[in-house]
Each structure stands twice: as C-alpha cells, then as structure tokens.
Amino acid sequence: MSTLDASPPTAGRTPGRAGRPADDDPPSGAEVDPAAARAAMVAELERNDGLRPGPVRDALLTLPREVLMPQAYVRRGAPGEEPPRWELLDWSVPQDRPELLGLLYGGASVLVQHDGEALLGRGRGTRSGASITSMSTVVGLTASLLQELELRAGQRVLDVGTGAGVTAAVACRICGDQGVVTLDRDRHLTDAAAVRLADLGLRPGVVCGSGDEGCPARAPFDRIFVSYAMQRVPAALVEQLAPGGRLLAHITSASPSWPALAVVERTADGQVTAELRAVEFAHRAGHGMQRIRLDEEFRQRIADEQGSWTQRSMLAPPADTDRGLWLAADHLLGGLVRDFGAEPLSIGAPGCGSWLRVEPVGRSRWDVTVHGPRDIWKELQDLAIRWRAAGSPGRYRLLFEPDGRQRAVSACGRLSWHLPLPRPLHEGAST
What we know:
Elements: H1 34-48, H2 55-62, H3 65-68, E1 71-76, E2 85-90, H4 97-105, E3 110-114, E4 125-128, E5 132-136, H5 139-149, E6 157-160, H6 166-175, E7 180-184, H7 187-199, E8 205-208, E9 221-226, H8 235-239, E10 241-251, E11 260-266, E12 272-278, H9 296-304, E13 309-313, H10 323-332, E14 337-338, E15 345-349, E16 354-360, E17 366-371, H11 376-389, E18 395-400, E19 406-409, E20 416-418
Parallel strand pairs: 6-7, 6-9, 7-8, 9-10
Antiparallel strand pairs: 1-2, 2-4, 3-5, 10-11, 11-12, 12-18, 13-17, 14-15, 15-16, 16-17, 18-19, 19-20
C-alpha cells in the first residue's frame, strides 16, 4: 500500500531499540506471535481507521504478512544522516523476527525494495545510499480503499502496482484468485509476488507491464485499484472497466501536499461517471512522475528569515479541513508545497523561491510574512473567495472530454481546472 506521499511515513529504528537485536539475545515466543500481531493490527484499524466487520477485515485478520514480506528494510543511523544506511531484516533469522514483526504489523509503510533490486535470493545485511524503490503502503489507507471497492466473491479485479502483493492477496481471498490480475512494471516485484502468493495457495494472474495500459487481454474488470498516485486517470483503465464497475486511483500534481482520490464508475448502461475527492493522504507517486519538494535549507529559510514584508491580518488562513480549497490551490495556483512539520502555516514555491509563513498572534489575528516574486497569501485568499462562492466543495466532478482532456469542476460549475495531459512513454509504477 501508500505509501503516503503527502506526509510520507518511513520505517526507522524500532522505538527503544538502538540497533539490530544481538545474536545471543533470542526472542521469546510472545515476541514473535504473528497471529497476535495480526489481531492487534486489526483492532487498531477498527479503532482508528474505520475498519468495519466484513470481508476486508476477515482477510486482513488471516493474512500472514510475513509470507508476503519475509524481508524488509529499516533505516539505521541518525535522522538526516547521509548517505542513508538500510538494513535488510529476514524472517528466517530468529534474532530479526521481533523487529520485523513490529514493522510488518505496526501499521506504517513496509520498505521492501532498495534501488530496484531483485527480491528473490537476496541476502540480509546493510545497504548504503540510493533509495527505497518499493514499499507496502500504510495498512490503514489500504484497508479503507479496499472497503471503498466493495469487493465480493466472483468479481474480476485488476490490481495496478503489485508491490509486495498485499492488495492482490486480499482480493484473492475475497473474490477468488481466478478473477484477479495484479500488474507491475517491475519484473523483480512480479516475480517475487507470484512466488509468495503461491506460498499462500493463491494464484492470480501476475503480469509485468505498464500500469497506464492495464491488462486488455483480461478485461473487462469489475474493480480496478491503483496503488500509486498519478496525474490523471489513464484512459485505458477507464476503457477496461466493466458495466457496474468501480476504479480508484489517487491523483496529485507535481506537489505531494494536497491529493485527491478519483472514483470512477461505469453504470449498467455503459456510461462513465467520476469524481475527485479531496483527501488528506495518498499513495506514493508513480514511476517517472515529476515531484517538487522543500529541501531542508528552504524549510529553514521559511522558519527563520524576515521575508519581504510582514503584515497583521484579521483574515484567517484556510483551515486544514478545507481540503477542497487546498486541492483547488494545488492545481490552480501550482508549484506550492506545504511544510506539514512546521507549527506555523508554512508554504514554499521551490520554482521561484517564494514562501509564506502565517503565525497566530492572539484572538483572530495572524502575522503574515511573504517573500519572493509571488504573493502566496493573496493568491490563497483570492482563491478562497472563489471556492466559497462555488459552495465550498470537497468533491469535484471529473469529466472525460471528447478531446481526451480531463476536467475537475465544482457542482455549480464555477470552479474548475484541467488535469495534465499524459506524458509520452509514461509508464505505471510499482509501490
């Protein structure tokens, strides 16, 4: 699953444990009880993530994640240390199991691939530099989206972005593996998933190919699930949706800050309807997708510098819960990234060096500091007026226009934007 890209969780050292367990410190049986860990994970999902009784809950409760992810990475060293050091833990090694169990059932993303490596036959140990190229998404996000799909026995399911195979395994348990196809552009991931799903007695179709192209040979599908973020909904996936079918995919711009969930449905008579829902979290961006970010030096400038000017304002900044406004800002203003780790509202535009800092100073007063050629504060306030005039939407209709463009539009039609056109030779991603 997701990782989450807007506020990406990463697996670091296990709390309270400075490094790998010592070879002479074998775990007790209670420390490595996967069934108990699964039950605890599901209980946490029920308390905090809206997991309901039903087939998704039942599948997660019986799915041994250590079979799908018998190895996973943990980052070692001090926060921000460069180059990063990654240690691969292995379930077959007893001293690794307590920490690995915590990673697999702790709810956060599980890091499964470093620098595009093959997953089968690799040895445990430390890797330096490069980056994590595939992870299993935060389980709460995966569970909520799988519930949104309303999976049922006998449905034909396309899982785009195989990753560790968690989504495919849940779909197989609920729908039956004969109707499930899982697709990824990375053959190392599909090869490993095929082996590990078979170890669970599951044999879905496992295909290596472009996520944007789907799997026309096995279409149509009743459900299509994309486990990475995209800039638009691929036309091929919409075409492969069966009457009565549903497709879910996260949509983002180059900024990771304010994502949306695209919900596409085909009616019984073949008509396509779709909407964009502003959401707090999303999957990780797909392969080759351009991203803009705030580096540490830029974050410090926003936090510490005086800026071009500061004014005291009685106008409140948009609330975090105004997600429909932030989604519109992401597309209509463009080039903005929020520092979610900062206490004052902090937004930067890496392309031109502009930034905004908004600090509360007493009741209904804010100190607004801006810097650079863009007045981000004025841009946000002007857009807020338009957003409120459009009814303060949190959801937008997604229209597929005859020329191939995709347009998000508020219910009243007063606020709209086009999603980016597809890039040539763009392929799907593995997450």
